[in-house]
Design goal:
320 residues; alpha/beta; three-stranded antiparallel beta sheet; 11 helices; 12 strands; binds 3-acetylpyridine adenine dinucleotide; tricarboxylic acid cycle; L-lactate dehydrogenase (NAD+) activity; NAD
């Protein structure tokens, strides 16, 4: 059986890391596509030359022509620009919306059966626009943010508790922006919810609140340190986790930006919700019960996403 084909649209910091991870995990053959000439070809050659030492079997190719993504099983989209210190994700909307249009048209023409994972910011609005521009079924187009935001939350929690990250589960829902919603009640250490761990004296409410805020600011913290761009190792790893769930029909329960049609009292938008990812793409949106402040915060986050979607419609009338 032929290996799956993984098309990476955008061969920048995240795109290159995605390619390396996909090859090392032998998820399939990799096409790195970018408008910059030489960059995808150079990265593909460099990563291919890590194969003999790493011992993977995967073909890598760089491309500047969408025809090269033909028949891709998975497309992961990072094309566009990242933010710099002082910028919010929303500041990228105008420029990255134009990029989504060309990417959507390229995918529609050459890879209409692919499972598409968007990573370009501002995430929830860009994945909404990408689905519209590509015309692919909504269950085959999703955005990566919740896996990353939850991984950041899990990392900070594991440091606080001094336990393995493997035993910390966490859910961050809502839009991928300043209003994201780390769900304390649904986050656990080996099944013990965080509020119980506060009662057990493992941490204090103040420390937990600070971790929640650090999670919300997780992207900005790295932008501030790097100064020239945004995070890419953990974002790429999160994207690969989602691609693997699809390619191997794992039925993973992962938070991601999915098309919501009825769940959470919302419809017609993309926002971060728990989903099941398997061979049919987003196979299910899990509609968990939100209470009190959780619901207020989620609704606030949804409003922020809706504002960005309206901004997209104002910029490009074909989306209205
Ligand atoms: P970067 O290293 O600049 O790579 C972007 C690549 O896109 C560059 O190689 C560009 O040449 C290429 N590009 C630009 N326009 C086009 C086009 N029209 N067609 C094809 N390629 C094009 O950025 P990065 O890899 O660090 O980040 C990529 C995106 O991911 C940015 O929008 C970031 O804000 C976003 N990001 C999202 C998350 C989430 O959790 C959602 C996390 C980190 C970064």
């Amino acid at each position: 059986m032929a290996r799956p084909k993984i098309a990476l649209i955008g061969a920048g910091q995240i795109g290159g890391t995605l390619a390396h991870l996909a090859a090392m995990k032998e998820l399939g053959d990799v096409i790195l596509f970018d408008i910059a000439e030489g960059t995808p070809q150079g990265k593909a050659l460099d990563i291919a030359q890590s194969g003999p030492s790493e011992g993977f079997d995967a073909a890598l190719k760089g491309a500047n022509d969408y025809a090269d993504i033909a028949g891709a099983d998975v497309c992961i989209v990072t094309a566009g620009v990242p933010r710099k210190p002082g910028m919010s994700r929303d500041d990228l909307l105008g420029i990255n919306l134009k990029v989504m249009k060309s990417v959507g048209e390229g995918i529609a023409k050459y890879a209409p059966d692919a499972f598409v994972i968007c990573i370009t910011n501002p995430l929830d609005a860009m994945v909404w626009a990408l689905q519209k521009f590509s015309g692919l079924p909504a269950n085959k187009v999703c955005g990566m943010a919740g896996v990353l935001d939850s991984a950041r939350f899990r990392h900070f929690l594991s440091l606080e508790f001094g336990v393995s990250m493997k035993d910390v589960t966490a859910f961050v829902l809502g839009g991928h922006g300043d209003t994201m919603v780390p769900l304390v009640r649904y986050s656990t250490v080996a099944g013990i919810p965080l509020p119980d761990l506060v009662k057990m004296g493992w941490t204090t409410q103040e420390k937990l609140d600070a971790i929640v805020q650090r999670t919300r600011d997780g992207g900005a913290e790295i932008v501030g340190l790097l100064k020239t761009g945004s995070a890419y190792y953990a974002p790429a790893t999160s994207g690969i986790e989602m691609a693997e769930a699809y390619l191997k029909d794992q039925k993973r329960v992962l938070p991601c930006a999915a098309y919501v049609d009825g769940a959470y009292g919302q419809s017609g938008i993309y926002v971060g919700v728990p989903t099941v990812i398997g061979a049919n793409g987003i196979e299910k949106v899990i509609d968990i019960t939100l209470e009190g402040e959780e619901k207020t915060n989620f609704d606030k986050s949804v409003d922020a996403v809706k504002g960005l979607i309206e901004a997209c419609k104002n910029i490009d009338s074909s989306l209205a």
